[in-house]
Amino acid sequence: MRPLSPTIICPMPAATKDAGKKIEALREKIRRHEHLYYVLDQPEISDTEFDRLMQQLKDLEAEHPSLVTPDSPTQRVGGKPREGFVKVPHSSPMLSLDNTYNEEELRNWERRVHELSGRSDVDYVCELKLDGMSLALLYEEGKLVRGVTRGDGSVGEDVTLNVRTVHSVPLSIDREKLRKAGIPLNFEARGELLMPTAAFRKLNEERERNGLPTFANPRNFTAGTVRQLDSSVTAQRRLDFFPYFLLANGRTYFERHWETLTALEKAGFKVNPNRKLVHSMDEVWRFIQQWEEKRDSLPYEIDGIVVKVDRTALQDELGFTGKAPRWAIAYKYAARAGITKLENVRWQVGRTGKLTPVAELAPVAIGGTTVRNATLHNMDEIERLGVKIGDWVQVERGGDVIPKVAKVVEDKDHPRGHKTFVMPEKCPECGTKVVRTEGEVDYRCVNANCPAKLRETILHFASRGVMNIDGMGEALVNQLTDRGLVKNVADIYKLTKDDLLSLERMGDKSAQNILDEIENSKKLPLERAIYGLGIRMVGERTAQFLAEHFGSMEALEQAGAEELQNVNEVGPRIAESIVEFFSIPANRKLIERLRDADLTMTGKKKERGTKLAGKTFVLTGTLVRYTRDEAKKMIEDAGGKVTGSVSKKTDYVVAGVDAGSKLDKAKELGVEVIDEKEMERLAG
Ligand code: IVH
User: Fold this and answer.
1) Which CATH number is associated with domain 337-423?
2) Fewest CB atoms less than 10 Å from the CB: which of 150, 558, 647, 670?
3) Homologous superfamily of 616-683 in CATH?
4) Name one Pfam family in it (predicted).
5) Residue whose CA is closest, atom 18 of ligand 1?
6) 567 CA to middle of ligand 1, Å?
7) From CA 564, how far away is CA 557, in angstroms rounded?
8) Which of 17, 29, 80, 129 is catalytic?
């Protein structure tokens, strides 16, 4: 037994004693709420209240550091899951990778592998480093039971419903197939979820057209997509999944990583084909160099190469440091960037009138292409960069994505520029005053006849989902607008065969086809014409609701903001945008001309039930009996309205499983909370 040291009695000051009691009481309270939230899923207080309690505890502990104990709730890392997503612990930690940036660092890594393993004949597997987010898929009896995000590596979020919408994820694999692949019935596949570059561009353009904020890169878009509460949104966004690990009971199953990849492929997973089993670092280096040259030809983005020790036994020997394995390393490609001079800034006007600052650059070669223009996004970004004309800037380019100005470069060879530039007060094309809606980053020109908007507007109007005028693509629209034959969408209906025949590469037959297409477009339903007007924030779906609610363009034109908000999915911002559009005389004139041209200007008002007339609902959590769309339709068919956030105006909150902050808010405001059955009863 250790000899007892003499006890020094050091009385605790009264103030510390009081603080100790307070701290313990607070911890008890927080633990109780954590249990209610995480374990029982029955929170009694709002997120804000919970955060306040936690902050009080943190402040007290900061004042009395001697009272901090390892079991205090402040010592636990992590936060609450977002509403609708349940936190799930991983079977074994989902690790990250250490990075290397040049050949020397890579060779140093190899040397460490040799030293630690005592071997020099190590095989490696080279894979592409896909620029998405990692995801774990759990299979039981060959069936997909759960998809979990990486989260903090130990605990992720259950995104199963969303993952099920990804086409390359097998939902069920039959026993025989698994047996042939040598995979057990219960296993876990881990890999990368990503958005192909083409889908990224298309979806971002669509968002841009509909006046929604765009995503900076496919990775952010992927993360935003997999965490959608509404899985039908995920389904539309075409994600892809490439697995690269296979675990059983939280451990690597096969003896070699190469075997894992082959087995996953045999089982029907989309394993990335651009992989290689190599026997030396020279071969690794060749693989890295080859793919650096070819990366632009891939349909998705990569940011490097991952090198993994092939043998599992050797992997186990090498083990981990912190959060990364010693048996794998990432070689990161340098962002494809170049330094050049910012010569000017011009303002580009899009279809919705949004003004985007475009940097005009001294031509610079980046990754095989010459870059002359790069986006500066918006005024906020310009302020963040602090950029001036004449500055030297670093320009970055990723895959198909538009080049962007990443930062200002300043040293003795690259002196600063001096010319500042500001957001023009008037549209650079038509001189109409530029407007910035409160709370928004973007400035817009609101003149429907703005020439810069014209081309984009006409292309949108003629596109398949709108007036479906086949043949009216970019080449034709450019000629029509350049020659002044089409000055607004109504002019399309005034075009004659002679007009068309006067254009380049236009024969009699093509001209007649286009006229026929134009004629046919007149018969399309009212919602198409509404969508075609290009009102900001009015996409295809909103146009449909507006047509069903008002039944005519005339009624829509005359509607005030209040009435507009009675339409499904139309909130104050969309209503304001519609009112603003119709308040501009040029826009009203345009509609008159479309009416004169005989476009469909009336439709069938949708006869909706009246049981829920005037009632506003909010759906929250995961519904069990209906999909969100079905529930919404049920409410809307009965005359009710579904909105996204709870306010005093909300009549009912329909709470499904895992309802979180919206439920708190409803309780706070005293809004009636009902379940799906009750919703069904109310809707009749
Ligand atoms: S292996 C323990 N292989 O890169 C090893 N990761 O920077 C961890 N990634 O979180 C992952 N392609 O999201 C691995 N072929 C690949 C990968 C890959 C992309 C991502 C993954 C990981 C991140 C680490």
Assistant:
1) 2.40.50.140
2) 670
3) BRCT domain (3.40.50.10190)
4) HHH_5
5) 129
6) 46
7) 10
8) 129
Encode pLDDT of 389-404 as tens digits.
999 999 988 654 678 9
Q: Is 0.85 topped by the overall pTM?
A: no
Q: Quick: pLDDT tens for 179-207.
A: 999 999 999 999 999 999 888 888 887 77
Fold type of domain 451-522: DNA polymerase; domain 1 (1.10.150)
Q: List phi, psi (to 5°) of 544.
A: -65, -45
For residues 253-288, one letter each, b for 16 or more C-beta atoms within 10 angstroms of the residue's C-beta and e for the rest, the string is: bbebbbbbbbbbbebbbbbbebbbbbeebeebbebb
Q: Which helix (H) or strand (E) holds 531?
A: helix 526-532
Whether the Cβ atoms of residue 352 and residue 534 lie closer than 8 Å to each other: yes
- The C-alpha atoms of residue 260 and residue 275 are separated, in whole angstroms, by 12
22 is catalytic: no
Q: How many CA atoms lie within 13 A of 129 on its CB side?
A: 20
Mean pLDDT of 342-366: 90
Distances (CA, A) of 495 to 68, 449, 488, 675: 79, 18, 12, 57
Cα of 31 from ligand 1 centre, angstroms:
35
State the Cα–Cα distance between residues 559 and 575, nearest whole angstrom. 9
Residue-wise pLDDT for 107-163, tens only, equals 999 999 999 999 999 999 999 999 899 999 999 999 889 999 998 888 899 988 888
Query: Is the beta carbon of 271 within 6 A of some atom in ligand 1?
Result: no
The CATH architecture annotation of domain 526-597 reads Orthogonal Bundle (1.10)
* Residue boundaries of the structural domains of the chain: 17-75, 99-332, 337-423, 451-522, 526-597, 616-683
Residue 22, token pair as written in the block: 């307070």
Structure tokens at 63: 């004042």
| Ligand 1 closest atom vs CA 330 | 7
pLDDT at 492 (0 to 100): 97
Chain centroid to Cα 61, Å, comes to: 38
Burial environment of residue 363 by CB neighbours within 10 A (0 to 12, 13 to 18, 19 or more): exposed
Q: Is the CB of 155 under 6 A from ligand 1?
A: no
Rounded CA separation 288/303 (Å)? 11
127 lines ligand 1 (CB under 6 A): yes
Termini Cα distance of the chain: 78
Cβ of 170: how many Cβ atoms within 10 Å? 19
Q: What is the pLDDT of residues 522-550, one digit of tens each?
A: 999 999 999 999 898 898 888 988 999 99
The H or E element spanning position 252 is strand 251-252
Of 435, 645, 431, the closest CA to residue 536 belongs to 435
Residue 30 Cα, ligand 1 centroid: separation in angstroms? 36
Half-sphere exposure (CA, 13 Å, Cβ side) for 560?
A: 1
Domain 17-75 has CATH 2.40.30.60: no
Instruction: Cite the annotated binding site for NAD(+) by residue number.
Output: 47-51, 96-97, 127, 150, 192, 308, 332
Domains 451-522 and 526-597 share a fold: yes
Please provide the DSSP assignment of 258-322 as one string: HHHHHHHHHTT----S--EEESSHHHHHHHHHHHHHHGGGSSS-EEEEEEEESBHHHHHHH-EET
Residue 153 has a pLDDT of 87
Residue numbers in the known binding site are 47-51, 96-97, 127, 150, 192, 308, 332, 427, 430, 445, 450
Predicted confidence band of residue 257 (pLDDT cuts 50, 70, 90): very high
Residue of 222, 83, 54, 96 whose CA lies nearest to 157: 83
CA distance 13 to 63: 14
Q: Which of 244, 261, 327 to mutate to test the pocket of ligand 1 (most atoms within 8 A of CB)?
A: 244
Q: How far is the CA of 330 from the centre of ligand 1 (A)?
A: 8
